[in-house]
Amino acid sequence: MSEPPPSATPERLLQFLWAFAPPLAIEAAIRHRIFDVLAKQPLNLPDLAQATGASARGVAALANLLVGLALLTRGEDGRYALTAESDAFLVSDHPGFLGGMFRHVSGQLLPNWLRLVEIVGSGKPATSVNVAAEGAPFFAEFVEDIFPLSYPAARALAAHLNLARASGPVSVLDLAAGSGVWGIALAEASRHVSVRAIDWPDVLPVTRHVADHSGVGARLTTVAGDLLEADFGGPHEIATLGQILHSEGVERSRTLLRRTYEALAPGGTIAIAEFLVDADRRGPLSGLIFAVNMLVNTEAGGTFSFEEIAGWLTEAGFKDTRLLAVPGPSPLILATRR
Fold first, then answer.
1. 26, 144, 161, 300: most buried by Cβ count inside 10 Å?
2. CATH no. of 11-96
3. Nearest CA to 234 among 170, 179, 184?
4. What is the pTM of this model?
């Protein structure tokens, strides 16, 4: 048996072996309110266990792992405390809370990924979240939890479009609206903005709830239906497609972009949020992982490059396709209706 080359070590592969541990540990900490409790004050182990109602053994093992992950600190006095990162994103009543996403790891995300060997062999997903019967219940439960992930980017889009200075009506078409985050952020920027939100009937009550809570519900109209069949209305000045093309696949995405073009007014702007990959699909890693997630969870979905989506936009009739840097995993893709 040949020896591995001197420069090769198993360390990276051994790290991959336990790569499932961090998200599950974060989920357990959220469900046992560890971050919420420590947001009030640093605590030692007995007090932290008492405050959360969890076992001292369990809290000790979990809290020490979170220290190792740099999501908690432990002082010389033995008290655990939040880091700036966990304070900003893992405390449930803080505006940037992303912990809702981790609540879905063990119950929804991981079980489907456990079938990856079978899925790669067959090419058939574990479920089809792009089909209403299977996807609507999932997204109705999930979309509000991912609101904070897109909200900073949506606010940046509103600023880029200079909506705060709008002097007349601005109609926004929010496609696959989900939590309504894109339309809501644009409506918050100006009282002149109204939003037409399209999604499945089971998801739109969540859209309505979040819009009402955000104070823009009076300017929101909801339309239920499949994206290739629903009445888009129009003409609109802006259309947003927030993280939807990856679940639709190539052909439905191309058709959707053509429908969107027809619903926009001349000079109108389309804004697309996606987990983009490089043209040669060597990175970024988040986009490559998400492509496998689409293999696991959709019939034809995947992740796409800017060049691919730009080609579809040109094919649909758009011009001036460009990237807009925003806070988030990828820049937005913008284009203009001729």
1. 26
2. 1.10.10.10
3. 170
4. 0.92
